[in-house]
Amino acid sequence: MSVARRIIPCLDVRDGRVVKGTQFRDHVDMGDIVELADRYRLEGADELVFYDITASPQGRAVDIDWVRRVARAIDIPFCVAGGISSVEQARAVLHAGADKISINTPATQRPELISELAEAFGVQCVVVGIDSLRDPDGQWRIRQFTGNPDATRALETTTLDWVARVQELGAGEIVLNCMGSDGVRAGYDLEQLSAVRAVCHVPLVASGGAGAIDHFVDVFRESDVDAALAASVFHSGQVPIPTLKDSLAEAGVEVRRPHLEGEHSA
Amino acid sequence: MVQVALVDSGGTNIGSVADAVERLGGTARLTADPAEILRADRVILPGVGAAGAAMARLNELDLIAVLRDVRVPMLGVCVGSQLLFEHSEEDGGVDLLGYLPGRVTRLPGDEHIRIPHMGWNTLELLADDPILAGISTGERGYFVHSYAAPVTGTTLAACEHGTRFAAVVRGRTAETAHIWGCQFHPEKSAAVGSRLLANFLSPAISEGVTA
Question: With contact defined as beta carbons under 8 Å apart, do B170 and B131 qualify?
Fold first, then answer.
């Protein structure tokens, strides 16, 4: 037995409500953040990521009142992403009860922020999110300001170089969002994830492309990632987490299955 | 209602531990006040971050002697559990509280063993103890750490990540039998964690502990 591969639903949050975006716009209200968080906890999610979609594009910090509400209600770890660009903002979110904070665009603007956060809170709290896309020359390169399609910028830095750099600076975990497969539901980008895995020594979370149970089996078996993140397949109920975990276990992937241990009733 | 003093060692998971205690019907107060710590029914030594910073903060607040005077059940969580040992090699080497024998060392990582050890890993129960009542070998706790204490005579449950290490510990001497430590995060470990914390808050935990 060893550490279980993690399944992580990602919830987009706007003004303390969970929303679902289509093409980054026209957000539909999905419900109360605590109710949805609790639903995923009961289904056996190993961790949750809350992405504050209002925060980053508007240049303001996360409103932490909902972080407190989530922390009071749920007993599994959760990470808050979006709008964190300073040690003080991170401290407020962590003290409100989040276990980790994830930074993306602010790290590309000021990489030292990663070291400052690792120094202040320990590397285990510091997740670096990377938005990555293959360019016409065949290289994967990072993007910034991806929360708003009109503002998204391509950078010169290759994804593999950035993965190495953020680890040196103190990233305790990396979430690789493969933009080419994101939203397409045709499976995770196994080629890119495997290439990043080869240079990533901290836990690696796959993001972008999950559309079916087989995609999760493939990403754990082929790309050896530590966790897989997804949103729409969980929100829609298309992939129920207990069924997903049973299938993963049958495929030989080690997972935590609280639904078999009666944990969910607690 | 069980009153828990959460010792303010500067960690960031303190709010979560308080939330977990409150979900179980206790009250939890974050404090560095010696009188309040010594008046509580239970003492929890939380802490995320580094052993060096946590020890520096306990020193600065003059709490090391206070902790030695605690006679009620005390629980160290994560780094708080490591602090119970003699020495850690973290931060270039730091002396710890020394309640339990042993040295905390860095987990050995390799191509497939990623550090930090982050996620749900299985417990292997090594001894019967009231803090583990209702918890079985093979159940999982949520771990987040890069350093760990060795498996010794004080280990109640072990875990493995690159090497075997102590997941749940308890003092073996008359002076330390009221002290437990938990390397995983019970406040974030769903039903397994609630069970451990409920056991810690229950009257049964005090049996054999001279308060």
Answer: yes
